[in-house]
User: Which sequence fits this backbone?
């Protein structure tokens, strides 16, 4: 048992924003558990962080797999007896950026996208909530996107007006709804629940066309994971600034 020391679970942490978030939290002295659907990739990523002096451990976790989620609960019960920070970072997009094909979105694309981007983080959060309640300052960060903003999508003057990928965008709008609803339910607890827009970041998902480096793309997740007690809950933020829902 590691009493006292904070412990964080970051899903989809073997690469991209998730790995960098784990690195930055680890450098703050937090034990970081790297959820990875491919354990070998998770082990390689954790080894990299350990070489940088970070207390990092991999965890087999395909967020869409109920048995993996149950095993994650057991892992935290057994090794820590609590969870301080949950970062629902794993996400997918199955659509082509820049081409609006809303009316021909295959049902399978909608189902798979919602499975990973909404149903899995909701189920994982519900399963881990008893452990988050045992933390002195539980923090839940849902990796959303500016593309989940209905306000901006419906505004012809907004920068995302022409960037429509229906399944992905709707999954992030729904994830934002989860943030608002869970934050309301937990408003009288020490747990804070927020949505993060990392920015458009150079990752496999964001592509090389993105303007932001990964090191900057992780800063919103890290800030929301380490919010002080008087910080916001039920908010949608990018680098400290609120985004419209
Ligand atoms: N990059 C951007 O510009 C941007 C902008 C807004 C929001 N976001 C959000 O930020 C988050 C991280 O994105 P990223 O750019 O770092 O993407 P990425 O480089 O594609 O990494 C995604 C991570 O999620 C993992 N993953 C996917 N499905 C999973 C599953 N079923 N179970 C467990 N892990 C799974 C991937 O694992 P594998 O390696 O096994 O595929 C990978 O580790 C996502 O939620 C994304 O929607 C990104």
Assistant:
């Amino acid at each position: 048992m590691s009493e006292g020391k904070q412990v964080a679970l970051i899903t989809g942490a073997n690469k991209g924003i998730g790995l960098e978030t784990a690195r930055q939290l680890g450098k703050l002295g937090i034990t970081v558990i790297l959820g990875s659907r491919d354990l070998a990739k998770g082990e390689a990523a954790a080894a990299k962080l350990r070489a940088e002096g970070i207390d990092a451990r991999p965890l087999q976790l395909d967020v869409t797999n109920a048995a993996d989620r149950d095993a994650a609960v057991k892992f935290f019960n057994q090794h820590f007896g609590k969870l301080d920070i949950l970062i629902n970072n794993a996400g997918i997009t199955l659509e082509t950026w820049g081409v609006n094909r809303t009316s021909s979105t295959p049902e399978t694309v909608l189902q798979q996208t919602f499975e990973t981007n909404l149903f899995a983080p909701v189920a994982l959060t519900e399963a881990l909530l008893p452990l988050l309640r045992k933390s002195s300052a539980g923090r839940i960060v849902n990796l959303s996107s500016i593309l989940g903003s209905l306000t901006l999508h419906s505004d012809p003057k907004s920068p995302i007006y022409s960037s429509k990928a229906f399944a992905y965008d709707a999954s992030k709008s729904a994830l934002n709804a989860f943030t608002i609803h869970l934050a309301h339910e937990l408003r009288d607890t020490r747990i804070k629940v927020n949505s993060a827009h990392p920015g458009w970041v150079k990752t496999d998902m964001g592509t090389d066309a993105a303007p932001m480096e990964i090191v900057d793309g992780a800063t919103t997740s890290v800030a929301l994971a380490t919010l002080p007690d008087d910080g916001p809950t039920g908010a949608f933020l990018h680098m400290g600034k609120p985004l419209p829902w």
